[in-house]
Amino acid sequence: MEIIKENCGLAGIFRHAQATEILYLSLFSLQHRGQEAAGILLGGENSTCFHGGSGLVSDVFSSSIIKSLKGNYGIGHVRYSTTGTSNPRNIQPFSIEYKGKTLAVAHNGNLTNSRILRKKLERHGSIFQTTMDSEIILHLFVRSNGTDIKEKMAKTLNQLKGAFSLLIFTENSIIAARDPNGFRPLCIGTLNKKSYVVASETCAFDLIGAEYLRDVEPGEMIIFSDRGMDCYKWAEGQKKSHCIFEFIYFARPDSYIFTKSVYLVRKSLGYNLAKECDFTGDIVMPVPDSGSIAALGFSQKKKIPFEFGVIRNHYIGRTFIQPVQQMRDSGVRIKLNPVKSVVQGKNLILIEDSIVRGTTCRNRIRSLRAAGARRVMLGISCPPIVAPCYFGIDFPSKEELIANKKKVEEIKQFLDLDALHYLSLHGLLDAMPLPPDEFCTACFTGKYPVKPDYAFNKYQWEKKNCCDF
Ligand code: SF4
User: Fold this and answer.
1) For residue 90, what pLDDT is reported?
2) Quick one: pLDDT at residue 39?
3) To bridge 180 with a disulfide, which of 25, 65, 231, 235 should be the other Cys (CB 3.0-4.6 Å)?
4) Is the CB of 429 under 6 A from ligand 1?
């Protein structure tokens, strides 16, 4: 059976004449969170409309499609599946018709008890249209015996485990909710203090001219309706486990997530890396774009000049996002090109945000040597990734993670490096603007803050050969 996991981007708007354009722009700025598919669902005068498709936001929505989508509130989604081929049925927002009304969900994260819930629902007659764990949420919602929308939603959310930042569309409201651990970000803003907007990251608000109000709190749901914004805590007292990898790699540097600036955190990672390692070289250069800010921090701390020794072709999706390994390898060869005049005869300190399989990185080192680099040293702005993620980020299976198979010295040899240094876990946590115990660091430690349920566990165990809980 196909298991769908994803890291995605969410956008929502409540009551605005230009709801379609606002959702389109919001998704456009969240494109880095999902490049395989995009969708928008709108509600208006007793009608709803949806458009979605595979590809980038700008490809899925033409100006004529945007004009044809009518409504004054709605939700949008950019999607990135992590299993094999993309399935058009899995494009979100995913909607159903219930009692003559449209109910829809847009989900960022991964439910760790999805197989148990799905089996239970199927035993009770539910027929699923997709392979997405997100669909389960709507089935639970319509079966919930709560007396009002708030109670129905709370009863639904209390059955979910794992990572979920959600937007739910109903006949007269949108609901934003976050899991009690707060794995994935979700922010609220306002447009002219009249309309509410919701987005995975604040960079979406910048593009649409919205003012950031606050985050949806872990364990909170917020109902946006004509009554305004109603906030409820549906779960309390659980330890926060924000995904630390959002700061390292995933979120855009111009965003604030978990209330903090991604740019400043990423620069601190480079600064701490420079404090820890003894590299000396002629220039510090990033692997663009995600390594750029850490490289700047490193360069400033070490007082070694910063140069762009590799130029990125911006018209290719990020290597990490490509779902097919074959595409991944060919993608890296055409994506980054060394600047010979910068690297030739130099001792290079290359800064990268992470190493996953190592194949991409090895190709980069090769191309730098071919361009005449004298020595190549590599600094990684996070610790070795040794365990897969069950909370919505696409790391490959444990066997494919290079740091799980090889020691640092072996990785250095595999990559053909003169020196290699990973930021320590202490250095990583020290760069964070929140207390260390408010982060999930499971991909570095194998210690998961939420234990997947047995059915999920058993299936994924075989697939991912996961380590200890
Ligand atoms: S396992 Fe890693 S990538 Fe997954 S939520 Fe935790 S920190 Fe983030």
Assistant:
1) 85
2) 97
3) 235
4) no
Concerning whether 361 is annotated as a catalytic residue, the answer is no
pLDDT of res. 446: 92
Does one domain contain both 292 and 172? no
| Residue-level length of the chain | 469
Same domain assignment for residues 221 and 287: no
- Range of the structural domain that residue 428 is part of: 264-464
Number of domains into which the chain is organized: 2
DSSP 424: P
d(CA 382, CA 353): 7
Same domain, 214 and 147: yes
Q: Is the CB of 258 within 6 Å of ligand 1?
A: no
Closest C-alpha residue for ligand 1 atom 8: 243
299 contacts: CB under 8 Å, gap ≥ 6: 270, 274, 284, 305, 306
Residues 90 and 216 in one domain: yes
Distances in Å between the Cα of 425 and the Cα atoms of 71, 129, 147, 436 are 47, 42, 47, 10
Identify the segments of the chain with pLDDT beneath 70: 1-6, 81-86, 316-334, 453-469
> For helices 325-335 and 359-370, what crossing angle results, to 10°?
20
* pTM for the whole structure: 0.91
Instruction: Give me the pLDDT at residue 384, please.
Output: 97
The pLDDT of residue 334: 67
Q: What confidence score (pLDDT) does residue 346 get?
A: 97
Task: Give me the CATH number covering residue 80.
Answer: 3.60.20.10
The alpha carbon of 437 and the centre of ligand 1 are apart by a number of angstroms equal to 14
Which atom of ligand 1 lies nearest, measured to the CA of 390? 4
| Residue 197 forms part of a structural domain | yes
What CATH number is associated with residue 289?
3.40.50.2020
Per-residue model confidence as pLDDT tens digits over 306-320: 999 999 887 765 445
